[in-house]
Structures are given as structure tokens and as C-alpha cells.
Design a protein that fits this description.
heterodimer; A: about 375 residues; alpha+beta; 6-stranded mixed β-sheet; 4-stranded antiparallel β-sheet; 14 helices; 18 strands; disordered N terminus; B: about 180 residues; 7-stranded antiparallel β-sheet; 6 helices; 10 strands; BPL_LPL_catalytic (chain A)
Chain lengths: ~375, ~180
């Protein structure tokens, strides 16, 4: 279903933004600019989905500005275990989201600007959008050396990536979104995007790591606010529309009917982890127990985020074979997830003989297994 | 093959309780004379073409070839060129039931993630496992080695809505203008 972007909708938007009522007549002509008042990555991704599914963009492209509190966003066909440090994300309260567009993994925080260019499929042109951003940056700081690469990255001084791009093409509409590094926490970015997980074999699309830099480090006048306004000015000039950004609330069901269920879906385990392409883990866990060093072989096949094949092999002088067998068979079909593993292994432990030494070995094994999830 | 078709067309015509199209059981020509052809016979003719696995196309650039009630689905050369290098193929599970135009997967390329739409209604019976290892096969051999799925057809009459190769080429030219 395509909904023409009506003046009524536009007026509703304008209620959130201080413009004289006379201004709204020209706003929808040739395009629109929106900015989310939310910093929730799932709500903001839901806005993208909603506009992509419901808005007729013929002659009316949209530019959407959004920023998120700390999170990692993986591409549609990526493997989060390969792309980031999930244990760290959980410890630090950094959210993980899977977007619907392709491409690689990115770290977002309030120092990163996200830009989404919505157009019809025919007008989809990433180069045009990125050139617009470069013009905007040079309008603020003419000395800035920013180039668009063949991979549609933006490179500062020929070596530092300041923007990455991804896209989605649907029946009649398309969107191109990109990041812009302004003042992001570089330490958090590096540590979040460094995967500690070994032995993963997968056909998922992988990210290409790059050296990054914040624009603010290059020039202290390039704050998020300054950059957003510069890009908005350039977009308005290019599309001959009025230069104002409409604030939108992504949880407003009157403006975006059905959007909250989109946001909800994006937060489900089934979407974030369950959509990971089939992969296998083939690794060895090293255990130090009472001054002896042991190797536990692990072979797990995971499909739709769930364990299909499980072969955990501990030396049987350390842990009886039948206990490992019990563990392996009980894992089949369960989520590859520490929470579910804890639950499962606790239940199983109750069926093991009451033996302190055995229980302590069991706990060591389970902790190690949890560590790879 | 032609004689068998002629016989089946005769049977179809008779079942319409109309004057038989052909007075003799074994006509010397494979097709009835055009002015005597009735709607049901045209349908039988089209079904006959299906038996010969002619490739037909959708407006969304998917193609399908059919053999009796099974179809093989892929994307056209225009589609693979437009996509650019394919880096990932997301295909449905075997057993997935689809209605015509249902989204059944996606191709991620350097350009974007693009959805795939089912040309016909039916059930997925096979997916091309080679594409998991070599997604780029879609760019190299979109009509042969990189078929995407095979499916049973629940409503073969839907084939009537698809374009022949010639019509599709014309359609693509018109969209490029």
C-alpha cells in the first residue's frame, strides 16, 4: 500500500516544528527533511521500514536524520559473532541491532549522524547523495579533504573512513543510508567491533575493517549540529525545498500507524540472532583445572540461531563421556545464547550425580561454553 | 510430440461440446486452422508450450521455466547487471508455500539488498545450494547454473500473466528510456 505524502501529514509534522503556518504550503513540494527525536536504534530503524513500505516518494524524496545511543548495527546477512564482541556489548549495555539493508557492521553513538536518503527506485543514486554530503562539508570547511570512494565510503585526508554506506531496494522505493563520524567514542567503537570468537566458518557477508577518524578531531567547529544543518541546507538547495527539518516522534502511531510493531520485531531474538546465516564453530577451549591443562574440542552447527549439531568433547578422564553426551543431545534445538544455555545446563546439572568435584568441572565447562556465545 | 499435442487439442475441443475443431482424428497439420480455434484450445496450446519449458518473465525481472507442474526460478540478465556483484543469496526453506508476488528471499549485492518476488504460486522443493558457497554465480550464469529455486506450481494458469522473452526484452528497453 502506498500512501501519498499528503499536506495533512505534513501539517501534522509541522506541529512539532516551529514554522509559520504559511510556510507549510511549499514544504512538500520536491521533498522533505525529517529528524527523529528518539535515540533508540530500533525505533529509528522502524521509521526507515515504515517510510519504505508506506510512502509514495514519486517527486518527493525524503532525507531522514537520526542518532542513536550506543549500539552496534549489523547488516542484514551478517553474523554478529563474527562482527562484534557480544560479551562486551552485554556487559556495557550496548544494544545490538540488525538492519534490513546489506553492508557491514557499524558502531553508533550520539557522536555519529545517520542519514537516510529515500527515493523511488529509479532515482536511487548513492553517488549523488554522497557528493551532496561532501559539498555540505566543504561549505562549512572548504579546506576539508573528503572524497567518495568506489565502495561509497567517505574518506578524510585520503585515509580515514568517516562514513559507510548501505542500501535497500524494494518494489518501487529504495533507501540509501550512511553514517557520519563526528565525535564518536573511538575506544568503545574499536572494542565493540573486535570479535573474540574463534573458529567460525560462515558464508555471511563480512565487514571490511577501516581506520576511522572523527571530523571533530580534524576541526573542532564540525559538531553534529553544524554538520546536520549544513547537509540540510545543501539538500534543500538541491531539491529546491524550504530549509527546515521536521522533528518526528517514531513512537507516534497516529503519524506512523503500525510503527511500534515494526520496532518490536526488530528487537526480537528471532530477528537479531535468528536471521544469522547458517554457520559452524570449530574450536578448542583451553581449561586450567587444578594445575592441569585440558583441551575441550567444540564443534557446533548453528542454523537460524539455533544449535543443529553439537559435539563438545572433553577428555573422559576429566569428565565422563556420558555427561558430555547428555550435554550435546540436550543442546540440539536450543538457542545459541548464554541465557538459554545457563537455564539448560542448570536443569541438566540436577540430573547429574551429587558429586562436588563433578559439579565444579561441569560449571567450568559451562562457563567456557557460554563464553563463545 | 506434435501429433500428441494435436490429439490433446482435439480432446479439449470435444469436451467443450462444440463442433469439433477438426473433423479427422489425425490431421495432416499440427495446429488447427486459426479461424476454428476456440478458447479452450488456446489454453491447451499454452499448456503445450509449458511442456516445452519456455522461459517466461515477470515485471520484477525474475524468470521461470516449467515442466508440467514444476518450475525453476531465477533472475534475468538485466537484473544481475543492475544488481552488481552478488555477495549473498538469501533463499527460502524447502517446503515454503508462496503466493504469486510473495517475497521469497533477497540478493545482497555491492549495490544493495534487493528482495526477490515469486513469479507464481506454489511450494519450494529445492534451493540452489551452490549459491551459498559462490553467490557470484548469479552474475556469471543467471540462466543456467544459478537458478535460485525450484517449485511446484499450485496454479499453472498464472503463467498466462507472465511475459515471453521477447516481450520482456521490449519491457526492459521501455523502462530504460
Amino acid at each position: 500500500m502506498l500512501i501519498p505524502f499528503s499536506v495533512k501529514n505534513c501539517f501534522q509534522l509541522l506541529c512539532n516544528h516551529k514554522v509559520p503556518a504559511a510556510g507549510f504550503k511549499n514544504t512538500t513540494k520536491g521533498g522533505l527533511m525529517l529528524q527523529s527525536i528518539s535515540n533508540d536504534v530500533y525505533q529509528n530503524l522502524a521509521v526507515e521500514d515504515w517510510i519504505h513500505d508506506h510512502v509514495n516518494l514519486e517527486g518527493k524524496p525524503i532525507l531522514f536524520f537520526w542518532k542513536n545511543s550506543p549500539c552496534v548495527v549489523i547488516g542484514r546477512h551478517q553474523n554478529p559473532w563474527q562482527e562484534c564482541n557480544l560479551n562486551l556489548l552485554r556487559e556495557e549495555g550496548i544494544k545490538l541491532a540488525r538492519r534490513r539493508s546489506g553492508g557491514g557492521t557499524v558502531y553508533h553513538d550520539m557522536g555519529n549522524i545517520n542519514l537516510t536518503f529515500f527515493t523511488t527506485k529509479k532515482k536511487y543514486d548513492r553517488m549523488e547523495n554522497l557528493k551532496l554530503i561532501v559539498r555540505a562539508l566543504n561549505a562549512v570547511q572548504p579546506q576539508l579533504d573528503v572524497q567518495v570512494t568506489k565502495r561509497f565510503d567517505l574518506l578524510l585526508d585520503g585515509q580515514f573512513k568517516i562514513s559507510g554506506t548501505a542500501s535497500k531496494i524494494g518494489r518501487t522505493t529504495a533507501y540509501h543510508h550512511c553514517t557520519l563520524l563526528c565525535s564518536t567514542d573511538g575506544t568503545s567503537l574499536s572494542s565493540s567491533l573486535k570479535s573474540p570468537y574463534q573458529g567460525i566458518k560462515s558464508n555471511a557477508t563480512t565487514s571490511i575493517p577501516s581506520l576511522v577518524k572523527n571530523l571533530l578531531e580534524k576541526d573542532p567547529t564540525l559538531t553534529c549540529e553544524v554538520l546536520m544543518n549544513a547537509i540540510a541546507t545543501e539538500y534543500a538547495a538541491y531539491h529546491q525545498i524550504e530549509n527546515h527539518i521536521n522533528l518526528i516522534n517514531p513512537t507516534d502511531e497516529t503519524l506512523f500507524p503500525g510503527i511500534n510493531s515494526k520496532a518490536k520485531e526488530l528487537q526480537t531474538w528471532e530477528w537479531i540472532y535468528g536471521k544469522t546465516p547458517k554457520f559452524s564453530i570449530n574450536t578448542t577451549l583451553n581449561v586450567l583445572h587444578e594445575q592441569s591443562h585440558l583441551e575441550i574440542k567444540v564443534f557446533i552447527d548453528i542454523k537460524n540461531g539455533r544449535i543443529e549439531i553439537c559435539n563438545i568433547e572433553a577428555p573422559d578422564h576429566w569428565l565422563p563421556l556420558e555427561i558430555c553426551d547428555k550435554l550435546n543431545s540436550s543442546f540440539i534445538g536450543s538457542k545459541f545464547c548464554p541465557t538459554e544455555t545457563i537455564m539448560l545446563t542448570n536443569i541438566l546439572l540436577r540430573t547429574c550425580p551429587e558429586n562436588q568435584e563433578l559439579h565444579s568441572k561441569w560449571n567450568i565447562l559451562c562457563e567456557k561454553i557460554k563464553g563463545i556465545m | 510430440m506434435a501429433l500428441r499435442m494435436a490429439r490433446s487439442m482435439l480432446a479439449a475441443a470435444r469436451s467443450l461440446h462444440a463442433t469439433p475443431v477438426l473433423a479427422v482424428p489425425n490431421p495432416p497439420w499440427p495446429w488447427p486452422r486459426p479461424r476454428l480455434v476456440r478458447a479452450g484450445v488456446i489454453r491447451a496450446l499454452r499448456m503445450g508450450r509449458t511442456l516445452l519449458s519456455e522461459r517466461t518473465f515477470t515485471h520484477k525481472h525474475e524468470w521461470i521455466t516449467t515442466k508440467t507442474d514444476t518450475g525453476t526460478v531465477g533472475i534475468s540478465n538485466f537484473a544481475q547487471e543492475s544488481l552488481g556483484d552478488v555477495v549473498y543469496c538469501s533463499l527460502p526453506e524447502v517446503g515454503t508455500k508462496l503466493k504469486k508476488q510473495d517475497e521469497f528471499g533477497a540478493l545482497e549485492s555491492v549495490k544493495a539488498a534487493s528482495k526477490l518476488y515469486s513469479p507464481l504460486s506454489g511450494e519450494v522443493t529445492e534451493i540452489n545450494e551452490a549459491l551459498a558457497e559462490i553467490p557470484g554465480l548469479v552474475n556469471k550464469s543467471c540462466y543456467e547454473d544459478s537458478w535460485l529455486t525450484k517449485m511446484t506450481l499450485s496454479d499453472p494458469s498464472e503463467l498466462d500473466d507472465l511475459m515471453s522473452e521477447e516481450a520482456y526484452e521490449k519491457y526492459v528497453k521501455s523502462t530504460e528510456e
